[in-house]
Amino acid sequence: MDKLIDAISKVKDRIQKFGAQLRQNEMLTRYVLIDPILRALGWDTENPEHVIPEISTPQGRPDYGLYYNGTPLVMVEAKPLGTDLNKVRDIGFQYCWQNKVPYFVLTDGNVWELYDMKELGGNNIFRIQISEDTLGDSARKLLALWRPAMPNVSEKFPELVISTIQQPPKPETSKISLKDLNQQNVTYTKISAKIYFPDGKTAFTETWQGLAFEVAKWALPKLKELGKLPLGRLIRDTKTKMEKPKSLDKDWFLETFLSAKDSVRESVRILKNAGIDPATVFIEGRIIKKM
Prior knowledge:
32% of the residues lie in helices and 23% in strands. Helix 1 crosses helix 4 (135-142) and helix 6 (208-225) runs parallel beside helix 7 (260-273). It is built from seven helices and 13 strands. The chain has two domains: 2-149, tt1808, chain A (Alpha-Beta Complex); 175-289, no CATH class.
């Protein structure tokens, strides 16, 4: 599950960063956006028992055939990022109908559509848009294609992407503000989450210390502007007497010798000193509390 969340998060970032290039290049879209998702779902793209690219059929060459027990279970048609999928959907349907392949995926790396081709006309099982949907919702739906669960393909998959912390206003998501997170009276163990800042910037962390680091790095210019540095023993211009310093820039260091709870608390303190409301900074992903 961590691999899938991480892959979706990276794809989100790549869509934003490399969008112009990906819109011009189908192979790049496959390599940068589609292959990582397939691998995270258990489809080894280097193993012909799992995946055969450009599989030959009388109707053409779909981009991927996903194989299970020696037979094609899913045909995948891939297009450059931003393609109008409505114009190419029928081609993929023909691949599946003529070759008796039960499932069809159409994707541009951002939008993913899964169809049950055993039903007349092709029944849509799910549609997601990675750039707009939450990490949790995208992962839950993509798990319909999880290879270890094959040959069953269904969106009605166990809810494995569930945050164990109290949810923010939309309980179906795993997004929570740092203010609310700081008010949780629990002990945390693991985190794998994306951080959303109020100016639209994002970061990703797989450690609690990384949360404090990303917050401090983002807030550093504001702390400088407001004359809030140094910030106690947390942010200093010297490594002296710091247990585990990490460089924020060429002048300032963050003390990262922090517990999970301390990392959240200090992240909130950094934001407040930078004049930022912690309620406007969110994390989204997998957060586990100590039982």
